[in-house]
Amino acid sequence: MCALFPASKPRRAEERARALDVPRLLPTFPLRRRVPVKPLSGEGPRARFCAWIGFFRAAVRAASSLIPSARGAPAVDMVGFAVPAEVSVLLLDIEGTTTPIAFVKDTLFSYIKDNIREYLRAHWEEEECQEDVGLLRKQAEEDAHMDGVVPIPLETRDGEEEVERIIQAVIDNVHWQMSLDRKTTALKQLQGHIWRAAYENGRLKGEFFDDVVPAVRKWREAGMKVYIYSSGSVEAQKLFFGNSTEGDICELFDGHFDTKIGPKVDSESYQRIAASIGCSTSNILFLTDVTREADAAEEVDMHVAIVVRPGNAGLTDDEKSYYRLITSFNELFLPSST
Ligand SMILES: [Mg+2]
Predict the structure, then answer these.
(1) How far apart are CA 11 and CA 3, in angstroms?
(2) 141 is annotated as contributing to ligand binding
(3) What residues bind substrate, as annotated (predicted)?
(4) What is the pLDDT of residue 57?
(5) Is 289 annotated as belonging to a binding site?
């Protein structure tokens, strides 16, 4: 059963805490679960909210012990909420929100490791592939001071043996960079080209949680705009949605943003996104699995909800209390459907 939040969300932590009154807390807070109030560290909306919530929880526990009807009240899961009426845009993260983190960590990265040799052999004579190798060679020169770096020699002779020697160096360099989880342009560029070939020949398909595509279709039918904001490049996003287990679903999205607009943990990025869409930040609801991203968006008055999916990083009790949580896109209730 879903506990619906108030339709209009008090965005500032103090306003939200002020808006919570005891009669509403009694049926919605899990009275049977005693959550320790943690000492506060740092400042900011979440810390202030936690101070308020700790006070209210203590008050509710005390009150519930005095009110016979409240003692047996069932705990209600705090999931799902009514989307505020001012929201007309949904902004979606991908990894951990629309798609299992394992798809990126396991499927995509494993594909590179398993298929890089075949890709390099097939595309070695192409200009784009030689540019990628040149960029990796330059990066290796810059990395010369690092432990374990694998240099990529120049081709000095003709023949298959020489090509295989260079290919092996490229493979070893890529494996070394991936083992360190590096995000160099050289590495990302070659990875992007390998994934593009895999999507185009059908060996890779974008994956989503089951609720995602039906919910996005429903939102669009209700007149909402839907955008993507991911650290993967816009090109990679379009390949992902254009070659998915659900077919080409690019038409479901009004636009894409990547970190060219700014880091996902920087508030200004969310202001730029709103300006680019042509709306106010308060007209946007951002769905993500990462609380730091949610904080950045909320800082500039964007509505946020944390998406809790299998395989995502766990949340602290304070985070569970502070953020609006959903475990499925079906737990969002548009104004027209509530
Ligand atoms: Mg994510």
Answers:
(1) 19
(2) no
(3) 230-231, 264
(4) 47
(5) yes
Q: Tell me the CA–centroid distance for residue 263 and ligand 1, in Å.
A: 13
**How close is the Cα of 111 to the center of ligand 1, in Å?**
20
233 and 93 in a common domain = yes
Percent helix, strand, coil in the chain, to 5, is 50, 10, 40
Q: For residue 307, how far is its CA from the centre of ligand 1 (angstroms)?
A: 9
Q: Which two tokens stand for residue 333?
A: 């209730």
For the stretch 301-324, pLDDT in tens is 999 999 999 999 999 999 999 999
Is the pTM of the predicted complex or chain greater than 0.85?
no
Question: Which residues have CB under 8 Å from 221's CB, separation 6+?
Answer: none
> In this structure, is residue 273 part of a structural domain?
yes
Domain total of the chain = 3
Is 282 one of the annotated binding-site residues?
no
Q: For the segment 39-65, what is each residue's pLDDT rounded down to a tens digit? A: 334 455 555 655 565 555 445 444 433
C-alpha of residue 221 to centroid of ligand 1, in Å: 25
Q: How far is the CA of 285 from the centre of ligand 1 (A)?
A: 15
Q: Which of 17-26, 134-143, 161-170, 309-318 has the lowest mean pLDDT?
A: 17-26
The reply to whether 316 and 271 lie within a common domain is yes
Q: How far is the CA of 44 from the centre of ligand 1 (A)?
A: 22
- Say how many Å lie between the CA of residue 106 and the centre of ligand 1: 15
Burial class (CB in 10 A: 0-12, 13-18, 19+), 34: exposed
